[in-house]
Structures are given as C-alpha cells and as structure tokens.
Amino acid sequence: MSFPKFDSSIPWLITVLFVGIFVLEFLTPPNYIFGYFYIGPILLTNSRLGRKAAILATMIAVVLTLLNLYFPGNEVIEPSTIASRILAAIALIVTAILSDRNRHYETAIAQQQAKLQSQVQLAQLREDFASTLTHDLKTPILGAIETLKAFQKEQFGVVQPSQKKVLDTLTRSHQTSLQLLETLLDVYRNDTEGLTLHLAPLDLIPLAEESASTLMDLAAARRVHIGFSYGASDFRQSLWVNGDALQLQRVFVNLLVNAINHSRRGDRIEVMLESQSSYQIVKILDTGAGIQPDEFPRLFERFYQGHGDRQAKGSGLGLYLSRQIIEAHGGTIWAENRQSTSGGIAIGAIFGFRLPVYLVQP
Q: From CA 295, how far away is CA 128, in angstroms rounded?
C-alpha cells in the first residue's frame, strides 16, 4: 500500500486558507458567517497531515468561529446569530469526525485491497507452478512407460515370468501417475480458463459400458464385479444427452474407480441408468463403508480425501473434476448413503449425477 508523499507546501497552504477565512470573518458583521469555509482546510489537513493535525485545525476553526461573536465587539449580537455560530461550530466538528472516519475506511480498504492483490498473485503463482510442473513431469513418465513396454515386448532380451510381473506392476504404477498428472493439469486448467466442451448428441448407456470395460483389469484384480441395471425396466434403454463424450467418460471412470477402491473383495458395483421426463439419471452403487454426515459438504472439493472408514486412496481430484464436468453440462452431481432395508444402517454409498434430456428427433 502506498501513502501520499509529504509536501512541505501543504502546511503553508492550510495556514494561508485559515488566515484568509479569519480576515473575512473579522472584517464582516457577526451575522455573516464565513466559518463554514474552514471545512476546506480541515479536510485538507485530515487527508494530508493526519488525525492529530486535523483535530488541532478543527479546534482552531471552532474557536475562531465562536470568537467572532465577541470580537471586534462593535455589534449588537442577536440570539439567532449566536445559534447560527453554534451550528457552524457543530458543522465543523461533524465534518472533522466524518472526514477522520472516511480516512480510516479508506486506509482499511487500501490495506484489504493490497492483501487481496497479494493473495491473487500468490494463487496465480501456485497455479502456474503446478501447471508447469505437471506438464514437465509428463515427459519422463511417458518415456518410462514406453521403455517398460519395450521390455515387455522383449526388445532387450527374453523376459522371465517373474520379471514380467514386475514390469506389469511398474507399468500400471507409471500409468496411474500419468493419469494423476493429467487430472491435476485439467483441474488447474479448468479453474483458470474454464472447461471447453465439444457437445454432440450421445447415448450414456454405451458410454457407461465402454468406461466399465476399461476398468475390468482393475476390478478383476480386486475381485469386484460391475453390473448394470436400467431402473424400472429390465431391458437395455437409451439415455440421450447433449454432451462431450470424452469428458463424460472421465466422469464414469472417476466414479467407478472410486467405487472399486471402496469395495471389498467379492463385492458388486451396480451402475443404474434410468430416464426421466427432464433428466437422465446415472447412479453408481457400492457396498463399501458409508459416508460420514460431516463429509457430504466437502466430498466434491479439490484435494478432499475424507477422514473416516471410507478414506479415499487417491489424490482427492477425481470427484472434484467430475463435479466440474457435470456442472459444465448443466447437470448435478451428488452422493448419498445406501440404507439397509432394516434399521436404516448404511451399507454402502451412491454417487450419482443427472443431465438434461436430449430429445432425439424422429
């Protein structure tokens, strides 16, 4: 925050103004009140010289204004003149008080603006750092993945079965790291630039099935089964929306991975898809630990990982990115607990979203 530099000519200017008003006051009859003109130098004093100087200037102005009732003393003073002089003195005092308060507010606002500016600059610095770091880290990870693939294809010699398992594990680990970096980069880009969508009519059913098929290895490794249901219907339907297929597939993958990570071995994840009059509804149900009530408001915040039995095993970005994508489509995403039929005990969680229906032209 910058303050105005002290100008040595200001005290002289204030003194000249006081002398000029004083001369006008004492060369005219008392019923002519020029004391109101002291408001100018009082405001100037407060803005340039501070509170103490303004208090002194106000006291001098009040004394001079009232003194003109008795000096030079060659006039008969009417009660109305006394009242007018008192009102003028009160006006000078009120002006000084309001001017001081206004100066205090301006100082507080300037300090707050400086603080906000520094916070914005710091936030921008963090955003730029994270974006640059994330982008630069992708290159060595991609190189490591390609090298591992070359080993798996035995381009550097025969690979033993025990070595193949190690290579598979390393490849999956690097791919997970790459996916995390891409998610982090997308989150920061969406926050700063907004999410750009390439909208087209699409059916959510095949998109959900394709997303689940890409996670079959992960589900099999955890012995988790993924099933589909279509609401009240026993048959496969069509759920048309106007959406970005790539972005909505990321939502399906994020929610399915979240369900797989929180499911026990042998559990079943159910993907429920149903159509309503205005919205297409997608729900992903798991049988893991329920969600603590105090966690619901923060589930879709950036980097939130939970603190209960259902503590997340990822970065806390998947649900946040999913919320960005769904809201950009004009939809809503939510979470709730699955309740048992008896006793209302949580037997898992439901993560769902709804998107506006796209009416397919016949």
A: 30
Dist CA 309 CA 186 (whole Å): 29
Q: pLDDT for 53-72, tens place per residue? A: 888 888 988 888 888 877 76
Instruction: Tell the residue number behind the tokens 């099935």, with chain if given.
Output: 209
Is 10:20 a contact under the CB 8 Å cutoff?
A: no
Give whole-number Cα distances, 77 to 27, 65, 127, 254, 279, in Å: 16, 14, 73, 88, 84
Domain residue extents for the chain: 9-117, 126-193, 200-356
Query: What CATH class does 200-356 carry?
Result: alpha beta
Largest CA distance in the chain: 121
Structure tokens at 188: 């920061």
- Dihedral sign for Cα 109, 111, 117, 120, please: negative
Alpha-carbon Rg for the chain in angstroms: 37
Overall pTM surpassing 0.90 (yes/no) = no
- What token pair was written down for 79? 């009660």
